[in-house]
Design goal:
The structure is a single chain. Helix content is 37%, strand content 20%. By secondary structure, it is α+β, with helices and mostly antiparallel strands. It has one domain: Orthogonal Bundle (Arc Repressor Mutant, subunit A). Strand 1 and strand 2 form a beta hairpin.
């Protein structure tokens, strides 16, 4: 799966690029990896531990670092958070909901 679309965004998972309406957005490596993992796992809850392992592997890191990267991701997708990426922190669980696949709205 080389790319995913969720209006107005296009996520190129091979070249690790995110664009909005054809304009490339700058996204650091870890926020991109978080977005990619959530995009590839739509309509399901993802635990904090699962997300950390997918993005950082077996490296020990803090919950605050994860929150920082999620905040950075949200700052790039801007006002489209609700329409394009709904990443809700529910205790220690994260969820991605895409317009075509509504779910995990809690």
């Amino acid at each position: 799966m080389p790319s995913l679309s969720f209006s107005p965004f296009q996520l190129d998972v091979i070249d690790e690029r995110l664009s909005k309406d054809g304009v490339e957005l700058r996204l650091r490596r870890k926020p991109f990896a978080i977005l990619k993992f959530l995009a590839l796992n739509p309509k399901r809850l993802v635990t904090q531990e699962e997300l950390i392992e997918a993005v950082w592997g077996k490296v020990v890191m803090s919950e605050s670092l994860l929150r920082t990267h999620v905040r950075d991701l949200r700052s790039v997708v801007g006002d489209h958070v609700e329409s394009a990426l709904r990443s809700h922190r529910i205790g220690r669980v994260y969820c991605a909901g895409w317009p075509a696949a509504a779910g995990c709205n809690r």
